[in-house]
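I hope you will forgive my troubling you with a question about protein structure. Here, with my thanks, is the record as I have it:
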Amino acid sequence: GGGGGGGAAAPARLPALSAGTSLTDVGANLLDPMFTLGTYHGRYHHPPDVSNVLDRAKKAGVERMIVTAGCLSEAREAIAFCEEHDPAGTFLFCTAGVHPTRVEVEFEGQTAQATLEQWDEFLHEHMPQGRIVALGECGLDDARLQFASQESQDRWLLPQLKLARKHKLPLFLHMRGCDDDEDENATEPCPAAVRLVDAIRASRSSSGEELLPHGAACHSFTGTRADLDHLLSVAGMTIGLNGCSLRTELNVRVAAAVPIDRLMLETDCPWCELKPTHASRALLTATAAQMRDHDAMTYVKKEKWRSDALVKGRCEPIHIIHVLHAVAAARRKYAVSDSTMSSDETCAVQSSVEEHAAYVAMAVNTTTTAVFFSKGGSRSKKPICKTPLSLKVDVDVPPPLHDVERLETPTAT
């Protein structure tokens, strides 16, 4: 919260993780200039403070963070970032893929096939090191077609899905446009959800193959219950929730419906904080008295930056604790009658917010580890056999860029 005037720091408290509980922030944009340069929309405000951000998160129980990359140059930067700030390779990992709004810049033109082969070589080179834990952020974005047409996004999603299969990587998926018309009575999934599942089906070399042999997380989910059900009809799909997933009362109800064993948590920092105007913030306020406080934190405006304070309006990995408690409170509010719950889970929902938050954290940690950090999966040190990959995947030579006025390259959220 808080406060105007005078530059006085506004004290705030974050609910604590229970003793022994840990979380993974599966989507953190830690390469953003707000962290690495101290610049906001191109304007400098304070020294780089990513080390402070990481320290705060680790001290609060955020055990692992997955740095999101949205193009090849960013994937290289993400690996370098992880190696610089976590030489031992214990808490910083990354994704590697092409964000749907960047596919035209990354792929289209005469070098498209060469770019795909470059991606294949990049993954072959860096996978054995264990930093890359997912192929992504890839997917579909119907809300920002000014950056890449729907046709381009559909065309270049499939090769990435093929790359993930070859390199035995889980997927870190992006789906936008599904929250444009919030209809709690919608019975049909939105077009982006349908096309995303269709692309996953098309990525198989035979109908007998598993749809998601190495799992997937559809991150920053903001869709309807129909969208959720359509995605979860695919075995191996999980749902990533953050502050943007909990903006409205409908969002909160849908979030509460995510099965406990298909749930992941993230911040999508520096974006997607839980704002005072969000429905989820009321859940936190209403249950704050039941939560054990974390060490008092301080928020200041970016113009008054201090190394020991959080910046107002800038989300950090530590805020995953807010997401956890909001999701736990939502599940207690809406999911008590869920017939799919086990007796253990029903008991947990009916317990205090803190107790249920601990239960959710434990379940989420199990799922996150199984998808992104299992020994037989994405973290395997075993070298990948360089078998040829059909990178063309029935993709014709792409036409010239569609005639749309270009804006500055968007951030990969």
